[in-house]
What we know:
alpha+beta; tt1808, chain A; 15 strands; 33% strand; globular
Amino acid sequence: xxxxxxxxxxxxxxxxxxxxxxxxxxxxxxxxxxxxxxxxxxxxxxxxxxxxxxxxxxxxxxxxxxxxxxxxxxxxxxxxxxxxxxxxxxxxxxxxxxxxxxxxxxxxxxxxxxxxxxxxxxxxxxxxxxxxxxxxxxxxxxxxxxxxxxxxxxxxxxxxxxxxxxxxxxxxxxxxxxxxxxxxxxxxxxxxxxxxxxxxxxx
Length: 203
């Protein structure tokens, strides 16, 4: 039996059927084995989550933040877009941008980080991801101890950044600020970002 048939992905006339989940749901290991999954598929509580095509605002915010963070993060850290974090067997999420702790570099063929390796996770909210980005993902990131989380929303074509820091005792994020035009922080490292630069071709 082929892997495609085993996972309910038989091909007919160039098209694929949707995956049929096994009893108990998918596991994080399945994400590396399932054929023909769309790019950026996530796993939440054993269910596959497929994302919609990326809007221009979303792509521009990711570019702005990735460049700024890469220029200002500690040299021992790594800044990556759309890289997975394996939280546990049933949850593997893909923040829009992440910053690793010092010296946490992956093997060239590794497809995910562990949560203990992450310093900051950033989610840019899209129309189809509001509940996940505002409620589900921050709760799960906090539950595994990721110390910093940013949520980015759109207002009039410009980003608003909501900044959170982990309360380790409560295993929950506490809001520390809302930033409209300029993001200026001292943690997790000194950083300053002109959020109005989103529409410049070279931020």
